[in-house]
Amino acid sequence: MDQIIVQILNGLDKGSAYALIALGLTLIFGTLGVVNFAHGALFMMGAFCAVVTSKILSSSHKVVDETRTDFLGNPLEVDVFYVQDWFGQAAGAAIMDWAVPLAILVSIPFMILLGFVMERGLIKHFYKRPHADQILVTFGLAIVLGEVIKYYFGANPIQTPAPDALNGRVDFGVWLGYGPNVVVYPMWRLVYFFFSGAIIASVFAFLQFTTFGMVVRAGMADRETVGLLGIDIDKRFTFMFGLAAAVAGIAGVMYAPIVSPAYTMGMDWLVLSFVVVVVGGMGSLPGAVLAGFVLGIIESFASMPAVVNLLPGINQIVIYVVAIAILLIRPRGLMGRKGVMED
Amino acid sequence: MSKSNFTRRGVLKTGAVAGAGLTLPTYLRADGHTGFTNAPGDSEVVLGFNVPQTGPYADEGADELRAYELAVEHLNGGGDGGMLSTFSSKVLDGTGILGREVKYVTGDTQTKSDAARASARSMIEKDGAIMITGGSSSGVAVAVQALCQEAGVIFMAGLTHSNDTTGKDRKANGFRHFFNSYMTGAALAPVLAAQYGTDRKAYHLTADYNWGYTTEEAIKASTEAMGWETVNSVKTPLTQTDFSSYIAPVLNSGADVLVLNHYGGNMINSLTSAVQFGLREAQANGQNFEIVVPLYSRLMARGAGENVKGIFGSTNWHWSLQDEGSQAFVRSFGTKYGFPPSQAAHTTYVQTLLYADAVTRAGSFAPCAVAEALEDFEFDGMGNGKTLYRGDDHQCFKDVLVVKGKENPESEFDLLEVVEVTPVDQVMYDPAHPQMGGAEATLGECNNGA
Amino acid sequence: MLGLDKKDSTLMLVVIGLVIFAPFLLNPFPEGSAMAQFNAGYPDLMQRFVIFGILAIGFNILFGLTGYLSFGHAAFLGVGSYAAIWSLKLFTLNVIPAILFAIIVGGFFAWVIGKISLKRSGIYFSILTLAFAQMSFAMAYSVLTPLTGGETGLQIKNTDNPLIGGPTDGSIGRANLFGAEMGNSFELNLGNWVFTFNLGYYIAALAMIAAFYLSIRIFRSPFGIMLRAVKSNQNRMNYTGLTPKVYTLYAFVISGMYAGLAGGLMVAMDTQVGPERMFWTASGEIVIMTILGGAGTLIGPVLGAGSIKYMENILSKINKDVLHQWFAFLPDGLEDAMVVFADIFVGKQWHFTLGIVFMLVVIFLPGGLVEGAQRLSARFGRKKKTDTTDTAASTPAE
């Protein structure tokens, strides 16, 4: 039983990452009708916002330490961090320690800007083009973004730890009446889960309760009519693209301490996020979120040793088996709308 | 139609035929006068460096390429000569190989066997490469080794650690300097037993592919011989990035040691998950919980950051070694590139030198002659102490380094410290060892191609 | 000619000519010159051009005509390859049974997957095919290791003992056609040029010409018109009493057989197979090849396949050393600057160029490379040339 609780937590955690990415992807599908193969790359860019922020905050200058030598036998150059020069030892160390949360502040404007540039500069011209063309152009863009990151940061994953204060663990079991150390869960993963929940809730609230959101929802349902009403739906759609990019970006920033960012992660997430979106049903935001959590939890259960030993290899394919089953039982995924991307 | 399986452009580039002008078509017999694939001309010889330049192992590949360039420079008499001066065999004199200037071509394996073979074939067919070397995964190494066997060129494996490369998939034209899973197990187990005691229960997480299997098998066998018990072993998909669902059950499984048979990004992420779940601070069966990473590399250790501190593993070579050969290599590499070389760089550098040396001693580029010169060749001064290139399976036998993550690193490169140098006798095995494909595994006949 | 109209005959003849003279056309630069780096006329790459050409032609029959975007086509390539290598290992080293076996297995696998996936359309169909292909990849990589060799894949070994005519001297068997090995080449040396005529290439080329011919016939047949009807209006088809799903399934199986053929040929030319041949990136590559060249056109997919394989194999091999040779004529400072600049696009950064090319082509040539060729010929055009490309482009993507 305790194992099941842990795996549910794992599933919720994975699910929230899936849900965040799928949410952004669906926003772009639903509002703009664009198949965005660069969405995984946006997630990666977010994760690298965390890397860059932490690099900037820990930028340093060299001071030669005569007492020690480096690997070639020359005097060792010791890194001295600027933030520590400016704010003192303790405050400087704290700032570097909190790089990942601080990166959120950096990533939001950056990702929105990136989204605007992408939409205005590229995607806009592809609204009327076939989906195949959209796939090709966004896939090209994803490759280019990945290669730019590889050029500057190399291919190996880069460790981006969470702040020490949030690096501990929460002993869940004690609250539930188990002994100590039976159900422990990393604190940062809980933070991630609640944070994702907050983001998802605010996106829904934004679409539900603001006039802007209402117009966008109307545009999703019937773009032409809304345009005829004299509303500049294009401008709003640009903003939606920026929003989707920011959601993917924040998901990436917060995910950096869980899985070390590498330039390949964009492509790693691409396929999975499409599976999640489609299983959720095209054009349905709640569907995307639901599918994210469902697949996350199922994947976690399938990775339990008891399950893997019973059915070897099930952990490799479970997502796809479930996806196929759902799509065969429910023609348009969990909550898909009729006629969206069905031709 | 002549029977040439692979062309030999190398000859044509420099040979007299090239200047013949628009005469009648010449029908070439590739085995005309040389008797082997891609026999080099009189002035230069082409080597093919086939490394991953895109994909997850691109950094390892880049480091291998740096080492190759350095080796070529040294062979051609440039730079400070690196290990040429410390190498026990003294036939290399900085005038290229057999008086021919060393040229090279590079390619991208993408860490995919198809792409690696395409790249190797283009080197052989188009560029006239006489030897192919490189790679940073066992799948690629086995695939390219089989190709070289077929084409009749020598393959000097780069970073490949699976037993199979010189085990069940060994080939007469293929040679490996890097150590393997068996040696890791044999070297690591006694150290682990000494550190953590013999009453331990291990839990294996294993990457679900060939290298993972052989490593798990080797570690299990050698730790069980020390009295350890294996509680469970779970296979994880290669493409997995978040290992939480595999790590979470470990703590209450009755195990007190976690063995991560993972490499590269897998290892960085699984170790990160393990640390996040508090395994390093945990207690189990009244002992401290421990984590072991069988195969370490410095580039990986860097990716895993703080998490590697105090964790045991093994490695083929480390730049902090104090012997003459290692120091010479680190000096020339560090001077040229500004940072110390990785173990991948070391093994590829040594492989290139060993090849050049074997050709020189054989007095011929013919693969079979080179293979004969490499077989049962004993050498020293290349950073691993006395080393034997065993003729039975073309595997190098040398001391194995047991390392652990350093507690107080002095620089961004100073991440591992050598705990013990396991003597070569302890990691020796029979060529027909069951882990190596048993009695069925044979090298086959060496192939000169053409 | 052979049931083709005049335009199609011309196109067919052009393709046959290009394929036969490829060893000349792809090796325009003399050996040893700086430009020789760009020569593509060596057996491995020529074989890959035609094999991936076949794959893309087959994919185009499904996608170009019916509009059904399969995102798991590499699975058929993969199973075809496994079938072929087992045939070489167990049955005979002759490539013909291996290739036939690959086609059959590829087609059967496509029938099974198609039967299920075609219950849905649009992106739901795409994801179903993707899911099946990813499952095949994951199983081949891990659980099915005894059957697929896992990560290290399968090669012919000296211990293999095929039923008919294996080597008796303990050497490693080679794929052959009634004794003539695929690697057999004949080299023609003209001045500074070397042209390689490789048996394997011509066998693969023959297969591609046949595949291309069949594809023209399908495009022009009543069946092809049915397939186009599937794309334009399924409802209307239903009302007229036709069952679009049946036609689509036929197209799916045919394109699966094309993929099986490509897989079989790949193994025949280079006797090894690894599971990453079925990974989703491989499926994606097929889609990209087709769109890049021009989906729905006859010749486009072949162009797309050729250009991607060319970049993969040629650009990735240009390293800094080569660049230094190229720019050696410049003054030192300028040479270094040029090398640093050019290095961004080649060698280990070849993916970057690939991404940029994808974007540029799709932005400026909505019809793919075929449209580029069309525009070029319209500009410099001789009438005749325009004719062929018109035919090729007469069935635009969507």
UniProtKB/TrEMBL annotation, chain A:
The keyword Membrane applies. The chain crosses the membrane at residues 17-35, 98-123, 135-153, 190-216, 237-258, 270-298, 310-329. The keyword Flavoprotein does not apply. It holds the Pfam family BPD_transp_2. It comes from the Bacteria. SUPFAM superfamilies: ABC transporter transmembrane region. GO terms for cellular component: plasma membrane. GO terms for biological process: amino acid transport. GO terms for molecular function: ATP binding; transmembrane transporter activity. Keywords: Amino-acid transport, Cell membrane, Membrane, Transmembrane, Transmembrane helix, Transport. It is found in: Cell membrane. It is a multi-pass membrane protein. Belongs to the binding-protein-dependent transport system permease family. LivHM subfamily. This is High-affinity branched-chain amino acid transport system permease protein LivH.
UniProtKB/TrEMBL annotation, chain B:
Residues 45-406 form the Leucine-binding protein domain. Keywords: Amino-acid transport, Receptor, Signal, Transport. GO terms for biological process: amino acid transport. The keyword Transmembrane helix does not apply. Pfam families: Peripla_BP_6. CDD domains: PBP1_SBP-like (cd19987). It comes from the Bacteria. Belongs to the leucine-binding protein family. This is Receptor family ligand binding region. It comes from Octadecabacter ascidiaceicola. The lineage of its organism: Bacteria, Pseudomonadati, Pseudomonadota, Alphaproteobacteria, Rhodobacterales.
TrEMBL record, chain C:
It is found in: Cell membrane. It holds the Pfam family BPD_transp_2. It comes from the Bacteria. InterPro entries: ABC_transp_permease (IPR001851), LivM-like (IPR043428). One of its GO terms (cellular component) is plasma membrane. CDD domains: TM_PBP1_LivM_like. One of its GO terms (molecular function) is branched-chain amino acid transmembrane transporter activity. It is a multi-pass membrane protein. The chain crosses the membrane at residues 12-29, 49-71, 91-111, 123-144, 199-219, 246-266, 286-305, 352-373. Keywords: Cell membrane, Membrane, Transmembrane, Transmembrane helix. The keyword Isomerase does not apply. PANTHER family: ABC TRANSPORTER ATP-BINDING PROTEIN, HIGH-AFFINITY BRANCHED-CHAIN AMINO ACID TRANSPORT SYSTEM PERMEASE. This is Leucine/isoleucine/valine transporter permease subunit.
